[in-house]
Amino acid sequence: MGERLRAAREAANYPSATKAAEALGVSLSTYRAHENGQNEFSAEIANRYAKKFGTTAGYLLTGEGSHKVARTMPNIVTSFDPDEQDNEGFAEDGGELSYSREHWQPQIAGATPEVDVKLGAGSGIVGEVINLPVGSGNVAGHKIVAEWLIPTGYLRNEAKASPNHTIIMEVIGDSMQPTYMPGDRVIVDLSQNQMTTDTVYAISDGYSEPQIKRLQRVPFSQPGEVKIISDNPALETFTVELERLTIIGRICGHIARK
After folding, report:
1. For the residues of 152-187, what is the DSSP string, one character each?
2. Can you tell me the mean pLDDT for 123-148?
3. Has this prediction a pTM greater than 0.85?
4. Which residues form the HTH cro/C1-type domain (predicted)?
5. Whole-angstrom Cα distance, residue 27 to residue 75?
């Protein structure tokens, strides 16, 4: 198990166990014990690792299949880590900085980027995606359309979000009214891409545009199921298997328009 987990991590461009543990939201000692083969991990943990590293739980547990899985929809961010890279994210023509969260450098120190993706309270919109050469490869990232000055202390201590993985996204549509109105912005922590509690998340089915929805676990369901809830009472609630759902990040804050 450990060797396959390490191979999957490296293939996903996580250069160290420390960075992988941080992205997964687990302790470094726990992750290292799994990767070093000291402790075996369950199917549920394998599924969590597989989603982060772009592989399958079956490969991690038994070695069946390939450790790489093709994705039909571009990620909101790449798996590159800015602390481990020498290249900075500049436009080829020297213009605006408009790339993935990791390679983007703010024009205003300490700013949080708003990306060219709109979370649908109904149907979402994926805006412009730009390819950026980094080292010997390429990184795809969403265009940055605005910068927001949100105190790091607030993000970390009040919103319980990782400042280095936080982005701003606009809400469109009416399915989350009256909580979230069209034109409102939300703070999304991309590192919290697993369902840990019943709350509001940015989600996708892996094929369609991202949406903002309230998720609620279905108790005692096997395999685990989740209710996808719209705050608009006129709309229907859906129930799906949790493993079929792509969680982009947890909604950690709300910037409402008056």
Report:
1. HHIIIIIS---GGGEEEEEEESSTTTTTS-TT-EEE
2. 56
3. no
4. 5-60
5. 24
